[in-house]
Amino acid sequence: MSFEKVLGNSSAGKSSDANNDSDATEDDNFNYILSAPGLIQTNSVDNKSYFLDNNAQAIFELNTTSGVHNPIFLRYELQSSDYKRMKQLYLCTSQNFGILEVQNTQTDVTEFLKIDLSTKVTSVITSTDSNIAELQFPNGARLDMACENLYILDGGSQSLIRLNLTSSLATLISSNAIGTGGSLFNSPKDIYVDELNDEAYITDYGYFTPFSQGYIFKVNLTTGNKSLFSNYDIGTGTSFIFRNILNIEQFDNNYLYAYAERYIFEVDKTTGDRVVLFDDGDIPGFDIFNYRGFTLDPFDKSFAFLNGGSNSPLIYKMNLTAPSGSLVASGYTASGPNIIKSSSMVVTSDESRIFFSSTYELGIKEVNPQTGNRSITSDNSLGTGPLYDNEDNPQIAITSDDNFIYYFGQKSQYVLKVEIATGNRTIIIDATSSPSFPFATFSLMKLGPTNQYLYFTSQFNDEIYRLDVDNGSFIKIADNSGVGSGVSLCGPKDFTINQSETKLYSFNCSTSGFVEIDLVTLQRTTKTDALLLNFDLDFNQPLVLSTDNENQFIIALNGDITELDATTGNEASISTPYKKGKGNIIPSKINAIWINKDRTYIYVESNGELFKINTKSGNRKILSKWFATVFAS
Q1: Order of strands across the sheet that contains 404-409
Q2: Every domain of the chain and the residues it spans
Q3: Residue 11's CB: how many other CB atoms inside 10 A?
C-alpha cells in the first residue's frame, strides 16, 4: 500500500525546481503513504474511486473492495510546482476528469485546475489572482451533474460563485448582499447542487466561537435567495447540529445526509427535521470522531465512505441502514505498541535500531527501520531496577558503543542508565542522593561525544548543567548570575556539542541568535547574530543537530529542514514540504530528530510518522506509522 519508486513520466508539466528531480539515487527510495485522505469520490466512466491525500500530496486511485490504493498524480508533476499545495479534488462523476484546487503557500493564490485522470494533463481554469472579486478564500466546491459548472463557496466574500469550465465565466449566485433572506453566511463549507429543483444546500461552520452551532442553508440558484434551512432552532429531532458540519449529500428527492463531528444525520428536505443515523457509540470499536469527511457510494446510496483526515489515516465504508461497516484502507504500518507523543529519539551507529522516549508513557520503545515494527526496550514489566513514571518530556541519550541509554525524568527526578540488551536500569543520580540538582527545570538532555558527561538545559531558568555519568557529580556551567561570562543566556533549549567536546552551541532566544560556550573557560560568545537569521525560532520544537563542520547546523522548523551557515546566516534547503524532496510531507510539529554521523540521512518523528530524509535530495521515506495523540501546543 505504499509507493517506493519514481513514477513514470506523465503528460503533466514538470516542476521548475531542479532539486526535485536531480539528486536522488537509485537506492534512495521515497514513498507515498496513506496519511490524510480526502473525500472518496467515484466516477461512472470506469467505476474507479479517487481521493487526494493532503500529506502525501498525491491523487490516489482506490479499489474500494480490496483497499489497494496507488498514487496516479503527484504534487511535483504540477507545472511550476514550487510551493504549490494540492488542497482539494472535485471529481466529475460522469466523465473522467476532476477539478484540482491548488494553493501557493508563499503567495496564498489559489488556482482551480482541470485534470484529465487518464492523461494527467492539467490546465488552469481560474485563480484568486483573476478578476473575480468575490473569489478570495475558497472553502469548498462541487461540480454540477453535467460537469459544466463548478459551484464555489468562498469564505472571504461569504458568497456562492458559479464558474463555467469552458468559458471561465464566473457568476455570483448568492452572497450576504445578494438575494433575499435574513440569514447570513458565516463560513460556508460544503455544497450539494440539486439542479432539478434549481437549488443548492450549503453547510456553514457558523461563528468561530466555542460551542457555536452550524447551519444548513437552502439557496435558489436563479434568484440567489437563501433561507436558513436547518439548525438548532429549525427542524425537529436532535439538537446536535455542531459548528463543524463537514459534508452534505443528497440521498434521494426527500432527504439529505449531513455529517457533523460525531454524528451522521438524515435531514428532511421539506421540513429541515433531523434524525441521527449514527453517533459515536453505534458501532463497537469504531470512532466516528476520528473521521473528517463523508461521501455516499454513488452505486449504492445505502453505503457511505468516511475518510480520516490528518490524524486518522483510515478509509471506512459504512452501512447506513444498520450500525455496521468495514475498514477499507489504513495508513498505519507494521505492528507493535504506539508511541503516543515522542519526546526524544536516538539511533544506533549502524542505523539498525531507533529508540524513543514518550510523554505520558512508561519507559523506552524501539522501531526497527527495516520493517517498521515497534517494540518495548525497557518498561516496568521488562528489565529490573527503578520503575518508570508517567513523565512530561522525558529525554534519552545513547552511548557510542550502542550498549546503553541514559534516561532522564522530570517527575521521577532521576537519571537512569539502561542496558539495551536486557532493559535493566540503574540510578546515576536522583533527588535523594542529589537534592540540589534541579530536575524539574530541565528541558533537554544530551550526551557528549566522550560519553562521560550529560548536558542539561533549563529553558526558563537560563541555566546549563553538566553531569559526570561515572560518579554522579555535577556542576553548573552557565547562568546569568556569575557562572561563566560573556553574552547573557536567553531561553537556552536545544543545543549541540562539537566532536572534541570543547564547545557547546545553543539557540539563545530569537533576539540573540546562536551562543557558543567554551566548555573549558565557560566563556560565552555570539556565534550567529539573530539579525542574520531568516526564521523565527520556535522553542517548542527540537531545532539543532550536530555537524562535523562547527560553522554549519541543521535547523528543523515545522517540517522545513535547512542547513545554516553560522558565520553568514545563509541557509540551504535540505527538505521543504512544498518545494524540495519527494514523498509524504512532514505534516506538523516535529517531536524528535536525529542525524547520522556522515550527515547523509536525517530521522524525524512527527505525529506518529517516522521519516528518513536524504540530506542531498531531500526525499522523504516513512519507515513506520502509528496512531499518535495530537496535543495542543
Answers
A1: 395-398, 404-409, 414-419, 425-430
A2: 37-125+303-331, 126-279, 334-434
A3: 11
Q: Is the pLDDT assigned to residue 286 strictly greater than 80? A: no
Q: Closest by alpha carbon to 31, among 578, 596, 615, 619? A: 619
Could you tell me the CA-to-CA distances from 511 to 274, 327, 361, 364, 535 in Å, in that order?
A: 55, 50, 35, 36, 11
pLDDT attached to residue 400 = 96
pTM passes above 0.85? yes
How far apart, in whole angstroms, are the C-alpha atoms of residue 275 and residue 180?
Answer: 29
H/E run at residue 559: none
In terms of pLDDT, which residue wins out, 531 or 504?
504
Interval 211-243: pLDDT, tens? 456 788 999 999 999 988 887 666 555 555 555
| Residues written for the chain | 633
pLDDT digits (tens, 9 = 90+) for 94-145: 899 999 999 999 999 999 999 999 999 999 999 999 889 999 999 999 999 9
Fold: same for 126-279 and 334-434: yes
User: C-alpha dihedral over 476, 480, 484, 489, to 10 degrees?
Assistant: 90
Q: How many CB atoms lie within 10 A of CB 334?
A: 15
Q: What pLDDT is recorded for position 28?
A: 65
Candidate CATH numbers 3.40.50.1370, 2.130.10.10, 3.65.10.10, 2.120.10.30; the one for domain 126-279: 2.120.10.30
* Owner of C-alpha cell 540538582: 437
Q: What burial class does residue 216 get, using C-beta atoms within 10 Å of its C-beta: 0-12 exposed, 13-18 middle, 19+ buried?
A: buried
* CATH (residue range 334-434): 2.120.10.30
Tens-digit pLDDT profile for residues 29-65: 899 999 999 999 998 888 899 999 999 999 999 999 9
State whether residue 569 is helix, strand or coil. Answer: coil
